[in-house]
Specification:
Largest sheet: 4 strands, mixed
Cofactor: Mg(2+)
Distance between the termini: 29 Å
CATH superfamily: Nucleoside Triphosphate Pyrophosphohydrolase
Number of helices: 2
Catalytic activity: 8-oxo-dGTP + H2O = 8-oxo-dGMP + diphosphate + H(+); 8-oxo-GTP + H2O = 8-oxo-GMP + diphosphate + H(+)
Enzyme class: hydrolase
Oligomer: single chain
CATH class: Alpha Beta
Helix content: 10-25%
Shape: globular
Organism: Diaphorobacter limosus
Pfam families: NUDIX (PF00293)
CATH topology: Nucleoside Triphosphate Pyrophosphohydrolase
Strand order of the largest sheet: 4-1-7-6
Bound molecules: 8-OXO-guanosine-5'-triphosphate
Length: about 140
């Protein structure tokens, strides 16, 4: 049987100094406590950008500026087959508030947080390559 994809919008918030934003998955969700990029499922009728803007308001209390899809990846978890639409975001407004009880951290390379959701490894690899850095996914298990 073919599994249906769950479409997900994910934001790579990049600060002017190059730091990127990661946050922990809230209690009660699969992989609770794992570090991830902010985002969530795309609802019927939403574009990736609209879903991402809504999710970041819901989770973090910030309103993002323009967001274009940079990469699309897939990951097959036991709980879902996900298709991740990754957007780099450079502009946002508002004050960060952890509205789902999560923890957030601005991370410079090399990243210090563990464990990271495996579905984010390919994008971490590309981001590291852009900076000429090595990335070893095994370190993030
Ligand atoms: N936000 C986010 N989701 C990711 C990342 N990597 C990754 O594999 N995913 C997967 O994408 C899916 C996102 O769903 P979610 O549960 O966070 O979305 P949501 O907030 O809309 O959930 P809900 O409405 O069911 O509570 C999960 O299966 C998650 O494992 C990532 O870096 N960020």
């Amino acid at each position: 049987m073919t599994r249906k994809h769950t479409e997900v919008a994910v934001g790579i918030l990049l600060r002017a100094d190059g730091a990127l934003l990661l946050s922990t998955r809230p209690a009660g969700k699969p992989y609770a406590g794992y570090w991830e990029f902010p985002g969530g499922k795309i609802e019927a009728g939403e574009s990736v950008e609209q879903a991402l803007r809504r999710e970041l308001i819901e989770e973090l209390g910030v309103t993002i500026g323009p967001a274009e899809v940079w990469k699309v990846t897939e990951h097959d978890y036991p709980h879902a087959l996900v298709r991740l639409h990754w957007c780099k975001v450079h502009d946002w407004r508002g004050k960060f508030e952890m509205r789902e009880g999560q923890t957030m951290a601005w991370q410079q390379w090399p990243l210090q947080v563990r464990p990271v959701l495996p579905g984010a490894y390919p994008v971490l690899q590309w981001l590291a390559e852009e900076r000429g850095l090595a990335f070893d996914a095994a370190q993030f298990d």
